[in-house]
Amino acid sequence: MVSTKTPSQLVLNGLLNENPIFRLALSMCPAVGISTTVMNGLMLGIAVLFVQVFSSCTIALIKDYIHPRIRIPTYTLTIATWVTVIDLVLSAYAPVAYKAMGIFIKLIVAFAIITMRLEVFACKNSVNKSFWDGIGMGLGFMFGMVALGFVRELLGMGTLLGYDVLGFRPLLFFALPLAGFFCVGFMMAAFNYIEIVFNRMKKKTG
Amino acid sequence: MKEILRITIGLTVSCLIAALIMGTVLTFTERAKEENERRDVQNTMLALLGYSGSRPAPADLELMPVYRYIVDKKGVKYLGYMIPVKKDGKTGCTLLLIDLSGKMKSRHDLELTPDEATEASARDAAMTSVLKPPTVFTYADSFIIAMLGGKRQAYLIPGEFPGFKTFIKVMLALDPTFTIKGLDIMEQEEDPGLGGEIIQEYFKNQFIDKPYKKVKNLKVVKKPLPVEYRRYLEKSKWKKGMFSPEQIAEIRHKYEDADIYALTGATISSRSVTTGIRNMVKKFAYRTQILDHVIARQKIPAAF
After folding, report:
1. Does the CB of B237 have a partner CB in chain A at under 8 Å?
2. Percent of chain B with pLDDT over 70
3. Which one of B30, B189, B265 has the shortest CB-CB distance to A172?
């Protein structure tokens, strides 16, 4: 199944139609566990974006040489290699960024979303298309994490990006892991609702 | 059979390629990484002593590391302290062996300058040359004595203790009477928003200015943090004229004997940090008193 979408469609697809968190419901563990603040969400999003793009391109490049029986181990190996490389390079040449992102990068090896994108998209499409798909998925994941972090940080700690905006802590519950599930559920519902309304309007006008 | 062979070879080759890539990157980045870590520790130490970009460290500030070893001499255990000493106007290193009752066993001068002593392999080589086998030694820890104008200004002690999730790495600054003067949490992976709050000023600054007498039995209390104390603790948010020097002295004195106020929703993390720091300070004070006693009695020309 070779994709016929243009780059802009691929990016939009990752952000909305196939948003990793709200649509594909993949990588829920990190989404629930890390999305306690906007900054955490953003950092993990950036890290995933890079690993997704690099891994997608690598797999698209070598897809003809991978034995179909061992494709999953190869994907994991590719992701692990990129994660290690990014980890090492950041720690050596960008210590400030590494301090903020270090623990998130190491987490990525086990992310379902990246393996799934390699399996579904990158191993069937060209390098160019896989690149744009990787960008779309990475941005979609980042968008989801930041949205979750926004709600949970504001309601759980009364701050945004570390700045005190409310002056008090409304509900500590939102900072706890359990609240992550609630937030994901409610935001998924909101996401679906907006889509239904959007489609209805489209039908009316078109 | 042919299929199995192809799969095996395929997997082996991919693993080898991945290993090759990772190994190459590692060799290229290792030096830069070590350099970063060293600079990071150095900056943390200076920051704990109160020096930063706007207030650079004075030229006569000296940081003298002391390395502690456990020495096993034919089944008898000794503590080995590698300390910097003054000798003919130069600074060298000497190894003191102290038995468990606090008496000095022997003293060995080492062919080592303090600069060389920062490398673990150089220290090991120098120690092996004076402590002939079958004596074995293992590295325990190290601390740093900050000297300003020939006087002891502070002790810097790196340490590690278990937190709620993983180990928490800290660096403590104590003044010569073992009052806590600074605390920095260097590494932690507690839950963000809960135990992760241990890095916030309103928690970690509670330890500052606690005298040794209080630290010895420091506890955690589950009470809300008083508002004025919180405003006082958040030093980076201070505005000009918010506290007068008298007010600062008053608040400091008022909370000097207070226990540590627990973080909401993270009592376990608060407790582990408090217990960890209490133990670090207690052990350090005990060891340093013994070491100082030995140095004074044996008239060792220590550089600190």
Report:
1. no
2. 100
3. B265
pLDDT at B257 over 80: yes
Structure tokens at B260: 């540590």
Give the mean pLDDT of B190-195: 85
Q: Which residues of B touch A84 (CB under 8 A)?
A: 22, 25
Element containing residue B183 per DSSP (H, E): strand B180-187
Phi, psi of B86 (to 5 degrees): -90, 130
Confidence of residue B48 (pLDDT cuts 50, 70, 90): confident
* B190 φ, ψ (degrees, to nearest 5): -70, 170
**How close A84 gets to chain B, by Cα (Å)?**
7
Report d(CA B210, CA B217) in Å as an integer: 11
The two beta strands, B76-87 and B260-261, are unpaired
Q: Is B202 helix (H, G, I), strand (E, B) or coil?
A: helix
| Bridge partner residues of B147 (DSSP) | B62, B152
Q: Specify whether the CB–CB gap between B51 and B57 falls below 8 A.
A: yes
Say whether residue A88 is in contact with chain B using an 8 A CB cutoff.
yes
Identify which of A139, A159, A137 has the alpha carbon closest to the alpha carbon of residue A39: A159
- Are A156 and B29 an interchain contact pair (Cβ–Cβ within 8 Å)? no
Question: Among A36, A80, A89, whose Cβ lies nearest the Cβ of B25?
Answer: A89
Domain ranges, ordered by start, for chain B: 61-142, 153-287
**Chain B residues with beta carbon closer than 8 angstroms to that of A169:** 264
Tell me: pLDDT of A147 over 80: yes
CB contact set of B273 (below 8 Å; sequence gap of 6+): B161, B163, B168, B170, B185, B198, B203, B204, B260
A177 vs B contacts (CB less than 8 Å): 191
- Chain A residues whose beta carbon lies within 8 Å of the beta carbon of residue B33: 88, 91-92
Predicted pLDDT at A206: 66
Q: Is the ipTM of this complex over 0.90?
A: no
- Of the candidates B7, B28, B194, the beta carbon closest to that of A175 is on B194
How many residue contacts between A and B have a Cβ separation below 8 Å? 68
Please, which residues have CB within 8 angstroms of residue B31's CB and are 6 or more apart in sequence? none
Closest Cα in chain A to B6? A67
Asked whether the predicted pLDDT for residue B295 surpasses 90, the reply is no
